[in-house]
Amino acid sequence: MGNELEKESTDLVTDSTKAHSVPHPSHSAVRKDDGEVTRSQHIHRIVDFDCPLIESQHDPNDLARELSRILKKRDISLTSAQRTLLKDYKTEKNMYYIFTEPTIPEEAKILAYSSLFNFLIFQGQLTKRVTIELNPKPSEQWDGETSEENGYAMITLWSQDHIRDLNVRLVRYLGITLQELTNAFLAIYGCVECRRNPKWQGEADHGEAWKDMMVAIQEAVEDHSFLDLDLKLGGLGAPAEGSRPGGILPSDALSR
Ligand SMILES: [Zn+2]
């Protein structure tokens, strides 16, 4: 099943063999120039979504803040390509009119939506950076997992076959996928030194930067004039500490 996914998801997926041939810039090798800002002893490059981000060289808080800012003013900040994509999606003309289409395999639906999330939520920054694999086995521990190496991420979605209703199950998969894409985004572009700080990505990948991003993403995804998807993100697995009961969002996330 994983191979099928890789073949079909040309927008997001990269050949995993290439991942190992790309040199990984070391944190200490970064030279200070106009594109960088210094915070503590770390050197972080400025986050500008008009340019490709650079792997491992951004403050996770900057990534979260800037992406949230773009998503919050989504009504005016969309590019013409994004507007066209959203219009097609809203008018049910293209591949995204697939939610309830029974002839399209579940994994193809997940990949189609992943591509949509990449372009409309993550501003295309995950293109050819992420491989998604649907594991036919369930996991007792996780719904999804993300690993990252050399600027490329592998997402594993563990089977949700215990959910019999196909639409409910797809909602579940898409919610997990969106969370894992958020993990992948921070893992690929976040400063390695900063990632483990609980104020940023945190040891469990659900630190404050991640939570802040999920707040903005959830709002954008549920917006009727935007993606209009109720992915029930509030009910997905996240650390209990600092979260609202039954939800992923920290109690103070919206006020920060
Ligand atoms: Zn850092």
From TrEMBL:
Residues 1-10 have a biased composition (Basic and acidic residues). Residues 1-37 are annotated as: Disordered. It comes from the Eukaryota. This is Uncharacterized protein.
